[in-house]
TrEMBL record:
Alphabetical list of InterPro entries matching this protein: 4pyrrol_Mease, 4pyrrol_Methylase_sf, 4pyrrole_Mease_sub1, 4pyrrole_Mease_sub2, CobI/CbiL, CobI/CbiL/CobIJ_dom
Family stated for the protein in its record: Belongs to the precorrin methyltransferase family.
One Pfam family cited in the UniProt record for this chain: TP_methylase
Single GO BP term: methylation
Keyword rRNA-binding: no
This protein's name: Precorrin-2 C20-methyltransferase
Protein's pathway: Cofactor biosynthesis; adenosylcobalamin biosynthesis
Tetrapyrrole methylase domain location: 12-223
Molecular function GO labels: precorrin-2 C20-methyltransferase activity
UniProt keyword annotations, A-Z: Cobalamin biosynthesis, Methyltransferase, S-adenosyl-L-methionine, Transferase
Length: 242
């Protein structure tokens, strides 16, 4: 698709971090923008279901006074399907922006930390150069987990790592060896592998897991070893503190 220069008067694309789950953990600026923007974009399921971020902002907006733009993001590794799906998503936002309407894309946590907004913003600027793109920081689930566990992430010269949990045991091991505290994100699919690596390093007793942090459905396991062989929610993270 050829880039289309954004005309004068184009709306602004906002990436709005709405926090980790508790609707009160949202900034005043984010609240103001959500109320002012005529279009609220949010990740949606193929069946049109609400996203986690959508649920967080419901108490801050009057949805019947907004254009609620549900965006379905491609969940595939096929390059062709990925490109097509992302282009379609960007164009749905562009259809609003080119008419001068600001679009607030809501994302749990922070829009610049492992967020769908990162790719959406890059693609929008690539396809429609000149579209104003602004991100509004939000409280990350990483910080929410520290509060839920009542433990600091780092102090003084300590090093903290924020690492996506993968199926590569050597990468997991390296992260643990080179940081005083490691927060592993999205651990549900590799929990047992991660526990094996922790056992090997003698750190299994230093790991805690939090699911849907700060939300009404938050669950905390202070000893991650209790979870071996169990299935976890997608929004689960592990904190390993030496």
């Amino acid at each position: 698709m050829e880039p289309e220069l954004a005309p004068i008067g184009t709306g602004t694309l906002y990436g709005v971090g709405v926090g980790p789950g508790d609707p009160e953990l949202i900034t005043l600026k984010a609240c103001r923008l959500l109320r002012e923007c005529p279009v609220i974009a949010y990740p949606a399921t193929k069946k049109g279901g609400k996203s986690y971020a959508h649920e967080i902002v419901e108490m801050h907006i009057k949805a019947d006074e907004k254009v609620m733009l549900g965006l379905v993001f491609p969940m595939t590794r096929d390059p062709g399907q990925l490109a097509s799906g992302w282009n379609r998503t960007a164009e749905l936002c562009w259809n609003e922006l080119k008419q001068g309407r600001d679009v607030a894309f809501v994302t749990e946590g922070d829009p610049n930390l492992y967020s769908t907004f990162i790719h959406l913003a890059r693609l929008m600027q690539e396809l429609h150069p000149g579209v104003p793109v602004v991100s509004i920081p939000g409280i990350s689930s990483v910080l929410g987990a520290a509060a839920a566990l009542g433990q600091p992430l780092a102090d003084g010269d300590q090093r903290v790592g924020i690492i996506p949990a993968t199926e590569d045991p050597e990468a997991l091991k390296e992260a643990l060896l080179h940081h005083d505290t490691v927060v592993f994100l999205k651990v549900a699919k590799v929990l047992d592998l991660l526990l094996d690596v922790l056992d090997e390093l003698g750190l299994a007793g230093k790991a805690s897991v939090v699911t849907k942090v700060t939300s009404p459905n938050e669950t905390v396991w202070r000893d991650a070893r209790e979870l071996r062989g169990q299935e976890l929610e997608y929004l689960s993270l592990m904190v390993v503190s030496k």
